[in-house]
Amino acid sequence: MKVTQRYEIEEMMSQDAHGVAFRARDREEKRDVVLRRFFPNGRDGGGLQPEEQQPFLEAVEKLKVLRLKELRKTFDGGCDPIDGIPFLVTDWVEGDTLGSFTKGNPLEPASVKDIVEVALKASEQISQVLGHEMLWVGCNEDSLIIPESGRGITFWVEPLSSLNTRGLLPLAELAERLLGWKDKPAQHDSAGDGLAGWIRQIRGNPKGWTLAQALTALHKPVSAATPPAAAVAQPQRASGSATKPAAVAKPASVMKPASVTQPAAGTKPAAATATATKSAAATKSATATKQAKGADKTKGAGSGKRPEKKGVNWLAVIGV
């Protein structure tokens, strides 16, 4: 089996209803990687059918040539020949997760707006490459990594985004949590540098916005009476040159905590770079546990509702 022959599994980092993530060693390239196995039909629902696997493999090849500094690089991917479970191998980035950095403290609105903007722009570039417009990046604080190298906050691609029926809601919920507004929404749309109004509008029609419309509304709030121009009815096909998208501009203030809840001075914003020599096994294990939390949640923290196997049409959703 390709996975066990090339990749040495070192430890399981997390698992939920959507998949499991491991820290692994690439024997061929002699580098640390994150190997994620996904459950497209739920934990007990099996993998992709033979006719669904080819579109997934084609998507992996497109992701492998994608170069975005905000996206952790895809090195490899495929489907288990035994059970059809799809897997993806991505860059291991040493550093703190956004969740461990903030420790539950809110960020400044400008920093949150930068994070939302990067997520939307990165999703636009991925959508061009894969030919389908949707939110393609993980929106959990524990899947966002802050490297020490100055590269800026990094996301990872979520290949199961094709099963997302919530539109842009996960991104709006991330913004709420980072602002400290969970379960206590702001009273005025102007609050949080206009983010309160943006979140309210996304929540009101999460599947009715294109990525471009959401970006425009982020910087130029739309009136509550003005709905998006059109729902995302058909995915946009990628052009022939889409595999070389322009890099997304690095946000200037992504990691600025709110001044009233500044993290302790000892908080370390990032760890060593991905190419650094591996440290002692104990340190390496500790870093692994705070890296990406599985398919976005900690072990056993699944959504509680698995997608039905019937209706998972990878040929239509992710195929070309």
Question: Can you characterise this structure?
Answer:
The protein has two domains: 135 residues, 2-Layer Sandwich (Phosphorylase Kinase, domain 1); 167 residues, Transferase(Phosphotransferase), domain 1 (Orthogonal Bundle), CATH 1.10.510. The protein is built from nine helices and seven strands. The C terminus is likely disordered. A hairpin with a 6-residue loop joins strand 4 and strand 5. It is of the alpha+beta class and 320 residues long. The strands form two sheets. It has a five-stranded antiparallel beta sheet. A two-stranded antiparallel ribbon has the order 6-7.
Summarize the topology:
Blueprint: H1 2-6, E1 7-16, E2 19-26, E3 31-38, H2 50-64, E4 74-79, E5 86-91, E6 95-97, H3 98-102, H4 109-130, E7 145-147, H5 169-179, H6 195-204, H7 211-219, H8 281-290, H9 314-317
Antiparallel strand pairs: 1-2, 2-3, 3-5, 4-5, 6-7
Helix pairs in contact: 4-5, 4-7, 5-6
